[in-house]
Write a structure and sequence with these properties.
The longest helix has 20 residues. Strand 7 and strand 8 form a beta hairpin. The protein has a single domain, classed as Alpha-D-Glucose-1,6-Bisphosphate, Chain A, domain 4 (2-Layer Sandwich), CATH 3.30.530.20. The chain has three helices and eight strands, in the order ββααββββββα. It is of the alpha+beta class and about 130 residues long. About 25% of the residues lie in helices and about 45% in strands. It is globular and about 45 Å long. This is SRPBCC family protein.
């Protein structure tokens, strides 16, 4: 299952956004209002929970300086990747789009498609908060 957030323009440089997204502590600023839990577990891993959804651990997998930050689910129960793609528009402006890729059975995909779509859209729309 592949989902994409809308592309969001942020009045920050690509370098700044890359640095902010590479620090997992900053993801708390991007979370939706209905967040029930956010906990940093290490330099590259955090746990979060939204009301009515199971908790999810995300691990910073890798980054491509100033253009891409890749996070993986730290559990095999819901294997997925979340990629933040950063495109510099100008020296002080960038576009960010989130891509969600996961391998789920059809029933699971049907159940989580709506909530995950809304979640990554919220993360993208909150990028100016960084």
């Amino acid at each position: 299952m592949n989902l994409e957030s809308p592309k969001v323009t942020v009045e920050k440089s690509a370098e700044y956004l890359y640095t902010q997204l590479s620090d997992i502590r900053n993801f708390e600023k991007l979370m939706p209002e209905n967040i029930a839990k956010f906990e940093v577990l290490g330099d590259d891993i955090f746990n979060f929970g939204l009301k009515g959804m199971p908790e999810i651990k995300l691990r910073l997998k890798e980054g491509v300086p100033h253009s891409k930050v890749i996070l993986n689910a730290a559990s095999d129960k819901l294997p997925f990747t979340l990629v933040a793609n950063i495109d510099a528009v100008s020296e002080n402006s960038s576009e960010v789009k989130l891509d969600f890729e996961g391998e789920f059975n059809p029933m699971m995909a049907m159940m989580i498609k709506g909530p995950i779509s809304k979640f990554i859209e919220t993360l993208a729309l909150n990028m100016p908060k960084l």
